[in-house]
Amino acid sequence: MDANVIASLDPIRLAGARCAECGTTTFPAQADCPRCARRTMNRIELPAEGVLWTWTTQTFQPKAPYAAPSTGFEPFPVGYVDLGDVIVEARLEADPEALRVGTRMRLVPLTLLVDGGQPVIGYAFAPATGGSA
C-alpha cells in the first residue's frame, strides 16, 4: 500500500492533499502545490464517492509491474471519477455495458498481482447504489 495514494484500508480512502494558501487539491498526496508552488499542502482523505466523468476500455495488457491473471489478460474498464475538488483516474469494477457518464461511483479495494505474483492492494471504483447523479 502506497501511503501517498491510500490513506486507509478500513474503510478504504484515498490520500490527497490540499494547499493551505490557494485551496488546490491533488491526488495523490504531495508536498508542493502545483498551482502556487508553495510547500503548504496538508494531507486529506478524499471522498469515497464521486461521479463517473468519462471512461474507456483498456484493451491491451499494461507494462510491468502489471501481471495478468493465470487465465490471461482480459480487457477492463478505466475511467475518471470526479470527487468534487479533484478528478481521479482509476480502474472500474463494472460491466462496461452498465457504465454511463454521470453514474455515481464508490471507492472499492482492488487486489492486484504484480511481477513475481506478489499481491498489492490498490483501488478501483464501482457503481454506487442509486445510479446516476
In brief, what are we looking at here?
InterPro entries: ChsH2_C, ChsH2_Znr, NA-bd_OB-fold, Thioester_dehydratase-like. This protein has strands at residues 6-9, 12-19, 25-26, 41-45, 49-58, 76-82, 87-92, 103-114, 118-132.
In words, what does this structure look like?
By secondary structure, the chain is mainly β. The chain folds into 2 domains: about 45 residues, no CATH class; about 80 residues, OB fold (Dihydrolipoamide Acetyltransferase, E2P) (Beta Barrel), CATH 2.40.50. Helix content is about 0%, strand content about 50%. The protein contains no helices and 9 strands. A 5-stranded mixed beta barrel has the order 5-6-7-9-8. Strands 1, 2, 3 and 4 form a 4-stranded antiparallel β-sheet that branches. The model has no long low-confidence stretch (mean pLDDT about 90).
The CATH topology of the largest domain, please?
OB fold (Dihydrolipoamide Acetyltransferase, E2P)
* Strand order within the widest beta sheet: 5-6-7-9-8
DSSP summary: helix tally:
0
Q: Evaluate the radius of gyration.
A: 16 Å
Domain ChsH2 rubredoxin-like zinc ribbon: 11-40
Protein name: DNA-binding protein
InterPro entries: ChsH2_C, ChsH2_Znr, NA-bd_OB-fold, Thioester_dehydratase-like
Domain ChsH2 C-terminal OB-fold: 45-108
